[in-house]
Amino acid sequence: MTASVNTTLWHKIEALLPGVSRPARYIGAEGNIIRKHPDPDMVRWLLIFPDTYEVGLPNLGLQILYELLNDQPCAQAERAYAPWPDMAASLRAHGLPLFSVDRHEPATAFDLLGFTFPSELLFPNLLECLDLAGLALRATDRRPSDPIVLAGGHALFNPEPIAAFVDAVVLGDGEEVTLEVNETVRAWKGSLSPSGPQSEEKTALLRLLAGIEGVYIPSLYDVSYAEDGRVTRVFPVDQAAPARVEKRTIADLGDVPYPRQPLVPVTEVVHDRLNVELFRGCTRGCRFCQAGMITRPVRERPPEQVRQMIRDGLSTSGYEDVSLLSLSSADYSDIDPLLAGVMEDNAQDKVSISLPSLRVDAFTVGIAAKVATVKKTGLTFAPEAGTWRLRRVINKLITEDDLFAAVESAYQVGWKRMKLYFMIGLPTETEEDVQGIATLAKKVLEIGRKYSKGASCTVSVGGFVPKAHTPFHWYGQDTPDVLRQKIDLLKTQLRGTKAKLSWHDPAATEAEGILSRGDRRLADVIEQVWRSGGVFQEWGEYFSLDLWLEAMTACGLHSEFYVRRERGEHEVFPWEHIRAGLEQEFLWNDWQEALQAGVVEDCRWTPCYDCGVCTDYGLENMVGSLQPPAGGSQGTGQALPVPTPVSLLPRPAVKKQVRTAAG
Ligand code: SF4
Q1: Residue closest to 578 by CA, chosen among 287, 243, 177
Q2: Can you tell me which atom of ligand 1 is nearest the CA of 619?
Q3: pLDDT above 70 covers what percent of the chain?
Q4: Where are the domains of the chain?
Q5: Mean pLDDT, to the nearest integer, of 591-596?
Q6: Distance between Cα 468 and ligand 1 center (Å)
């Protein structure tokens, strides 16, 4: 049954809209919106994306959970996004709360507030949303009757900086675990007296949630520190809490074909198109890449299911653009037949298909060209480092020949604008590696000019931030000044060429570094940053490193300790009790290999080297073919000079599951 909006609150919010920027952010009314009538027997979820509506609405994870929960008879889900500062000020001035955009219900009308964190700089916005909701910031200060505050997302594979603010953290794939949380909360609600939960009952619920695989309850753990500030132990203080919390992994994505009916916004948003997921996980082993490490193993959606999701999505949304999402879309083992099938399905319509994460090789450009028959605006490649030596260190095994062949094919078939992504501040990086970025860019332009006078190349560089659960989490990050010197070197090297240089602010890289490997003591820092007005820290107009550094000093902490310090082999990390499946021994060995520029190949196509994920979780890479996709296992189409590192020699191979094209 479709339920009406909360007109009392909506009219008050509506009155504020003429005075704020982009009022369409707050009205809801999207195509495929679900307005389910809440029933006392249902568990009510408010799914919150702590950034603007434009960034949050297309978030696939949130859309999946929104539809999945609303499909359940015992659940009801609505959405909220962080109000921009002008709207937040207006809400406060009028005594109005954070609200859902679906039915304009106040946040406290829900049983659970579920936050999604793709990045760490969004942490102060958690406090902004809690405060706007009228809730105490710290979990211990909230009343038993207040909503349960849950959070998930890639940034929470080190959840410790926000441990004080949340009741629970969900690790890994959200679909199954969310339903289990829903069922647990439903049963708990049903057991309460009419006067609502008391403190012991709330604690009992948290203990029950701690028993669900993939759920971490921070209040059931404590941390001890050495005199020099290092963590010495993270340990459970309650019998209900496991010593280590394992991430949740869905073995077969074929079981969860969501979203079927994607939300269609009424205003402009980023990635405004039909987004369909091809697969999760990536085993290419890029050592800087937290997303690749924490989402292992590879699990492909059956091709027929992808086709059906595209058919359903297009027919219910009216979109004409489809984006096939994953960490490296051209690695989907049935990519060629899948694209042929999708094009056949849409032969009568003007549907354009894009593959946003391209591998760097001519084969990939070939398939991109096949689907981009109309628009050939720009192509982006990510070699990540300027020299082959450094690309071996980071295990991004793209040769110069790969890059130049890819670029040549792209210019040949009509693309004119190339964008190249690089990181600076990588382990073992030298001046020669930084100069190598400019050398590659100049060569790319030279190739382009053979085909078009208007050929252009943009070089985009970002400072490297070591992330938890990667082989680089032992590494000490570059200072903002060193990063600026590297950017200056690139400016000099590219002066007088037609290559354009853009860069990520090194100050923001520093703040991200503090949070990425931070511990529980950073809660005070985040709170102080927020109290000093530090919201929307991913946005240039609001970001301030000074706010972070002043807060660190006020809390007796120092950024050098968190960001610059190279960790030893036996460092106890703040996320010691959080398991993404990767064994610390594997990560350490891979770090040592990196320092020697040793490489490791993709375990989809080579014997398993036992990183820990499949063997510990009883999983396996699930791909449609045991052969590497065309273009070569590393996208080169040629044999690579890649010696097998001694410490990564294969252990007993895990059987790789083969799925037929029919799924
Ligand atoms: S356990 Fe083996 S097959 Fe699975 S992701 Fe790790 S290395 Fe690859």
Answers
A1: 243
A2: 4
A3: 93
A4: 7-246, 273-505+574-648
A5: 98
A6: 18
Ligand 1 pocket, Cβ-based, cut-off 6 angstroms:
283, 296-297, 603, 608-611, 613-615, 621, 654
Question: pLDDT of 300-326, one tens digit each?
Answer: 999 999 999 999 999 999 999 999 999
SS3 annotation, 271-295: CCCEEEECEECCCCCCCCCHHHHHC
Ligand 1 atom with minimal separation from the 297 CA: 5
Which amino acid residue places its CA nearest to atom 5 of ligand 1?
297
Pocket test for ligand 1, best of 247, 279, 282, 283 (most atoms within 8 A of CB): 283
In a mutational test of the pocket of ligand 1, which residue from 610, 617, 648 has the highest number of ligand atoms less than 8 Å from its CB?
Answer: 610
Domain 7-246 and domain 273-505+574-648, same fold? Reply is no
Which residues neighbour 341 within 8 Å (Cβ) at sequence distance 6 or greater?
303, 307
- Please report where in the chains the tokens 């004080």 appear, as a residue: 164
pLDDT (tens digit, 9 = 90+) per residue, 34-78?
A: 999 999 999 999 999 999 999 999 999 999 999 999 999 999 999
Residue nearest to atom 6 of ligand 1 (CA): 611
User: What does the pLDDT read at residue 660?
Assistant: 37
Spatial distance between the Cα atoms of 159 and 234, rounded to a whole number of angstroms:
13
Under CATH, to which class is 7-246 assigned?
A: alpha beta
- Report the alpha-carbon distance of residue 310 to residue 339 in Å, rounded: 11
Residue 367's pLDDT band (boundaries 50, 70, 90)?
confident
**Pairing status of strand 43-49 against strand 112-116:** parallel
Side-chain-side CA neighbours of residue 148 (13 Å): 29
- pLDDT over 70 (residue 656): no
**Dist. CA 486–CA 508, nearest whole Å:** 16
CA distance to 7, 29, 35, 41, 263, per residue, from 4 (Å): 8, 12, 7, 19, 18
Which residues lie below 8 Å from residue 319, measured CB to CB, with a gap of 6+? 262, 264, 273, 274, 313
Fold of 273-505+574-648: pyruvate-formate lyase- activating enzyme (3.80.30)
Q: Report pLDDT for 658.
A: 43
**In the predicted model, is pLDDT for residue 642 greater than 50?**
no
Q: Where are the alpha helices (DSSP H) in 174-237?
A: 174-190, 199-210
Q: With 0-12 CB in 10 A as exposed, 13-18 as middle and 19+ as buried, what is 70? A: middle
